[in-house]
Amino acid sequence: MLVAAALPVMLVILIVTTVAGLPMGIAMIVSSIFYLMMAGRDVGLAAEQVLNGVFGNFVALAVPLFIFAANIMNAGQISDRLLKFALALVGRLPGGLAQVNILTSLIFSGMSGSAVSDVAGVGKVLTNMMIKDNRYPRGFAGAITATSSVVGPIFPPSIPMVFYALISSTSVGALFLGGVVPALLIVAVLAIVVGVSAKLRGFPVEAVIPLRAFPAIILGAVPALLMPVILLGGIYSGAFTPTEAAAVSAFYALLLSVFAYRALGPKSFWNVVVSTVKTTVVVTIVLCGAFIFNYVVTIERVPQNVFLFLNDFEMNAATFLLTINILYLVLGCFLDVSTIMLVITPLFIPTAAALGIDLHHFGIVVVFNMMIGLITPPYGVLLFIIKALNGIPIAEMIREIWLFVGVLIGLLMVVTYWPDLSLWLPRYSGLLN
Hints:
Elements: H1 2-19, H2 24-38, H3 44-55, H4 62-75, H5 78-90, H6 96-112, H7 115-131, H8 138-149, H9 159-168, H10 172-178, H11 180-201, H12 214-237, H13 242-260, H14 266-299, H15 302-311, H16 317-331, H17 337-354, H18 359-373, H19 381-390, H20 394-417, H21 420-428
């Protein structure tokens, strides 16, 4: 009797502890241990899953290293130089600073792999520039900053894609390369939407930067711009693995900040280390809980039961992907990225594989979905970060965000039903057959 009730009790405990305010990672660990006790299994299996899943996996080491690199870039004024470079390139376009916002997010994403780092770093500066002297409505400035930041985890490198590779046994390199075209498509469409909005709403353009200033701006940005070139070139040439690339990015950012830009002193570096450790601890606890929780889900054959349930509806690949998109868009309104990726996604990976969906393409679709979730109310994490950093009321951003959410959902459908957008680069590079 206890064994049969173990799984429902575990789910109830997970929901109750989460609603009560317990962090998701700890809630998963607590509920999973209750399951092991009720099912008469060795509680030591929990520790075994943590050791094998987190500390025994070389890919998992990439996450804190990318976090460290992003923190160094924000503290070491690298993002400021990228901002000046983007301003020189696209500041004169309609909606100049909004265009700069989009381009800077793309450039920054090639280094950090995190939407939160983008918003907290260069996004904070850009938003303040946009709302200064009421040049742009506060809600629009916050909305475009949040929206452009979702490019970060889609364009390589990407922390969510590292997580997905952990749970799906797919190639990190192929996932990284698969995100390039969708990310560039997002940037191009957002630039068009902003340009049209700027014309209709009379947004300002920026002053022309004299040609004589370009050499200094470019020279200041080139060392930072070389980072994604080094990372991607090293990964796809075979010089180092994606995890080693994360270490290279952190080391390169440190060299730039300390020696090239002379913007990172001992106190700033210590703050970077402390911030990285705090973030890494939170992420690691979630990972630990997810691996234990997923072990329970596996031995209870939940993925197989999900497949049989969906099979009763005679779903084909197209219908399944549409169902996943709707489900994830709804879940993204209420759950954080780590929960969706590490708890929900493993349930659907076997079904996707059984339906003949390429798991790398499925990973891009899943990550894209979750990035939209970062800006959808009521749990739009990026909107809350912007409110905390720039003081823009949530209600004002929500009024402006729906246009961008609609555009992103339209692009999501294109990426979902045109797999070659995600797969042709990995195939061309030889990472996929």
